[in-house]
């Protein structure tokens, strides 16, 4: 668990009381915003995490009294829009989180405020569209359609129109869609004997995620090759929808609940059958490990899924602990600049990806522990693009400093963002799972 100055106890998360009507009481939310902002203003340890805190602190410093009481109410709500729920303030910086008497959970207060704004209808078409990742993926990955979508996303004139009409920044490099969807093309192997370890189930179910399924299916195929090489039988989750993280970040908690009802029954069945459930997107893993259990604390199926859910490298390093991981690497990787994304750091499992990559002979891994500034859809939006690039600037510099052969992040979107921020570089961008597959010589 991350150590926090001034506290000898681990941070504790309270359940999200989102089904209580009082949760959406705007007056109550504003009162809590004022209480928490006042504490943050007096502390200021989080000044360098994202743009929410600098916006708040600048507003206070520029006010007539130099205190929160003279800051316009609109600014207090504007701060909410700057938070993209990375959770880093709660997990690494704040000395006032529960069990402290101040009981401060900044990200979940921001979530509550976003939920209030959503209930009031203060959400535009673009935000609803971008958060519907499954629907977008299904439409954009249709053969023929996919070529048009990918071409439009690279056309300057079209991007200017998207900027002016939709609010998707013209300079943001967008991921391509792939008509060869992962779930349609995955080559599974269930013929290996199940070898359970003390720490790991010996069979795996893959939750594809929207991004891997529609945008970068190669990452999913690399995971399957790695599992097959290690003689771990694998299968896909029978049916899946979006994990709900984009809707959570929007404050659409009813949509999160709806997606939970689609996903959890299939996942819970697998968990009870003794499968480890792997996702190659940290935000999806975090959704099932933390957010859904906090939204549905009394749901036994949600709890079972949370206990069976693994990050791929968390699982693989536990297989090593069990003496069941193959380390017959054939290809060195040289110098790797590796970025550990926020939604992986806050899972508090250590740096398993770095540990795995360091097992590869003649491979030097430089690890960057800082928010890249993109988030899922936040850095795509016109009004936040410049902020995302500014937040990511220290990461871009640190990633380039070692003149790496590869740049890599467990969050594929963060990897794309970092590559764009670095500009011209000889380094090749690859997901850590792809690097591991290369090292195995597969």
UniProtKB/TrEMBL annotation:
Which GO molecular function entries does the Swiss-Prot or TrEMBL record give? Answer: 4 iron, 4 sulfur cluster binding; metal ion binding; oxidoreductase activity
Under the heading Pfam families, the entry gives:
CCG
The Cysteine-rich domain, residue ranges = 204-287, 336-412
Note the InterPro entries from the entry.
Answer: Cys_rich_dom (IPR004017)
Q: Which top-level group of life is the source organism from?
A: Bacteria
Q: Does the keyword Signal apply?
A: no
Keywords of the record: 4Fe-4S, Iron, Iron-sulfur, Metal-binding, Repeat
Q: What is this protein called?
A: Fe-S oxidoreductase
- Species name for this entry? Sulfurirhabdus autotrophica
